[in-house]
Design brief:
single chain; 56% helix; mainly alpha; globular; 55 residues
Amino acid sequence: MVALAEPTRLAALAIVWDGQEHCVCELMDLFGISQSRISASMGRHRRCHVRRTYR
């Protein structure tokens, strides 16, 4: 599954699966990557029905 193939995506998913709310800025700081990259990763998870978005 492509959504889990990249190590950063898999690590980010492990963090957001802890049952708490997380913002993109928190993940940016943890992984040292850009907002667009983490948002794209989370979007891929959502499109593959690996996670849902809450607003």
